Amino acid sequence: MAQPGPTGLRSSSYIAESQTMEQRATIPFWRDVRVIAILSQIAFVLIVAALAGFLYANLSTAMRQRGLAAGFGYLRLESGFEIGEGLIPYRPSDTYGRAFLVGLLNTLLVSGVGIVLATILGVIVGVARLSTNWLVNRLAAVYIEIIRNTPLLVQLIFIYFGVFYQLPPIAQTLEFPGFIYANQRGVFVPRPIASPTFLPWLAFLAAGIVIAIVLWKFSPRLFKSSSMLAPVLVAVAAALLIPALGWMLVGAPPLTAEIPIRERFNFQGGLVLSSEFNAVLAGLVLYTAGFIAEVVRGGIQAIQRGQIEAANALGLSSAQILRLVIFPQAMRVIVPPLTSQYLNLAKNSSLAVAIGFPDLFSVNQTIANQTGAPVPAIAMVMATYLLMSLFTSLVMNIYNRSVQILEK
């Protein structure tokens, strides 16, 4: 029997497609699978919207019957309560909206600083956990096990009442070098004050950092040296000397320091880091660093042993292997779970209410109690934390894509 050639195959395919199109044309639209799929999705969306509208109407009716506010007009009313500390000026005569902003900025401050410090401490502890030195390894292991297996709230209360609350009173203030003082009211440090020459000097600082990065990348080729010491020295020299030169050229000092002055009952001037802020920051950093350390350890151990053996064969030192071989490859494993730890740190900052730090949740709780608008207030807090988490995830996802290995 003769086999169909290429022309016969094309003809058969064309005939099959024609028959399929004819069959689809004869099927009523209410029996078409594609139409049914689209209609079912539209129906599902309408059901969800109707259910949400029913719940909102029910909630609004219940709130009106109980005299509770359903809108956000209360944000324009006078707050009438004090806030212990904040990054912007605040008085009780300001609005609830400004009070909310004060709490938000406090949360962003403790979260931002906490993420940086927790990352540094977590990386150090994670590397120490893999150290061949028995004492360093055991100390890191004990720290991780204690931190990871005790609740954060318990740690916060212990740090606040067991450490910072036990500092001496003002009359017996502890003095440290650099005009740093510590007592039960907090830690007092010099406050940096920018002068009119600060912005010109900032340009020198940025230039020094950029030049240091460029020299770090290209100095081995310029000096034709295989040693890593030369690039380090050149980069550090550029990062220090160029800002120092700018400091002398701009005229007046770009930054001055306001020294805290000890008086009879309190300190005047300087920057005050309250005991509540210090306790929250220390608790978040210590707790999150324990989890970051395990993330770093897992990322390092995910590197194939042959990579390290090859680096040793090339004569690289332990520090060079860690910086040039291990961490660049481990980052693609570390970054995704590290993002989760950053999100947890920001959300865990709401536990600051337990020790009286005026964060976003604490301030908003006071607003809800005074205005009789708990639902809008809680909705604002949830939306704010959601936006913070989404922004953090966006930044970390962008960085994660930059460290991923592209496979062909």
Question: What key attributes describe this structure?
Answer:
408 residues; alpha+beta; MetI-like fold; two-stranded antiparallel sheet; 7% strand; globular
Question: What does this 3D model show about the protein?
Answer:
The protein has helices at residues 6-26, 33-65, 96-129, 134-148, 152-162, 198-223, 229-249, 275-301, 305-313, 318-348, 360-371, 374-403, and strands spanning 174-176, 180-183, 186-189, 191-194, 255-258, 261-262, 267-268, 271-274. The protein has 408 residues and is of the alpha+beta class. The protein has a domain at 96-190 and 259-403: MetI-like (MetI-like fold), CATH 1.10.3720.10. It has a 4-stranded antiparallel β-sheet. A two-stranded antiparallel sheet has the order 4-5. Helix 5 (152-162) crosses helix 8. The radius of gyration is 31 Å and the shape is globular. It starts with 5 loop residues before the first helix and ends in a 5-residue tail after the last helix.
List the topology elements.
Blueprint: H1 6-26, H2 33-65, H3 96-129, H4 134-148, H5 152-162, E1 174-176, E2 180-183, E3 186-189, E4 191-194, H6 198-223, H7 229-249, E5 255-258, E6 261-262, E7 267-268, E8 271-274, H8 275-301, H9 305-313, H10 318-348, H11 360-371, H12 374-403
Antiparallel strand pairs: 1-2, 2-3, 3-8, 4-5, 6-7
Helix pairs in contact: 3-4, 3-8, 3-11, 4-8, 5-8, 6-7, 8-10, 9-10, 10-12, 11-12
